[in-house]
Amino acid sequence: MTAALAGGLVLALLSATIINLGYLAMHQAASALPPLSLRHPIRSVVALFTVPRWLLGFLAGIVGWVMYVVALWLAPLSLVQAASAGGIGVLALLVARTTHVPLSRRELSGVAAAMVGLVLLGLSLHGHTDTGNAGSATAIGLWIVLSFVAAGLVAGPGSRLLAAGAGLGAASGIMYAAGDVATKAAVFGGWRFAFVPVLLACHGTGFVALQFGFQRGGALATAGVSTVLTNALPIVAGTVLYSEGIPSGAAGVARVAAFAAVVVGAALLAKADSEPEPQPVPA
Known about the structure:
Layout: H1 3-30, H2 41-49, H3 52-74, H4 77-84, H5 87-99, H6 105-124, H7 137-155, H8 166-186, H9 195-214, H10 219-240, H11 249-270
Helix pairs in contact: 1-3, 1-4, 1-5, 4-10, 5-6, 5-10, 6-11, 7-8, 8-9, 8-10, 10-11
C-alpha cells in the first residue's frame, strides 16, 4: 500500500468522524426549531444560521467535506467510502451519549460489524495497485440523473413505508452519494471540472433533504440512513463507473467481506426500532 493511498484512507476516516459530529450538532439544533418551509426559504435559512450549534455543525461538515475531496484525490472512490463507513459508529455512540440511553444490542452489533469491516479493509490493501480510471462521462451522468429520480421517490411516496424522517434521510444519502460520484469525476481535472456545478447541486439537494429530515425523525433514522447510502452507493459506483477492480485471492475475499461488513454495520445502526427512537436533548 502506497503512502498516498494510506493517507487518503486516514483522511476519509477523519472526514467521516467530523461530518457525523456535525450531523449530530445540526440535528440537535434543527429539531428544536419551528418547522422549516420551502415556501419561505430565506426565513428557514436565517433560522438555521442564527443558531450557534447548528452553524458549528455546518462548518464541521465543510471541513469534513474538504478532507473527503483530498482523500478522493489520493485513493479510489470505493476504498474511501469503505473507510468513511466507520463514521456511523461515531454517530451512534454520540447519540447514546447525548440522550443518556445505552446502545441496544443491535446498535452494539452494528458498531462491531463496522469496525471489523475496517480491519478487513486494511488487510485487503496489502499490495494494492489498481486505482481505476476516469470513467465514462455518459455513465456518470446517467447515474446522477437516476439518483435524482430515486431520491424523489423515496422522499415522496416511499417515505410512507419507512420510519419517521427516514425517507428524507434516504433521499439525502442518495444525493450525497451522487455528489461524491461527481466529485470523483471532477478531481480528474481538465474538462471534467464541468462536474463541479453538478456535485454542488447534488450536495445542496442532499443538504436540504437532511435538514427537513432532522425535524421529523431521530439522528439515526435521518443522518444514520443518509450515511448508510452515502457510503454504500459510491462503493458500487467505484466498481461500476470507475473500474476500481477487486484484488484476487485472499485480499479480494477480505475486500468483499469488508464492504459487506461496513454496510451491514451501518444498516444495523440505522434500522428503525418498533418503538420511537429517543430524541437527543437540545442544548
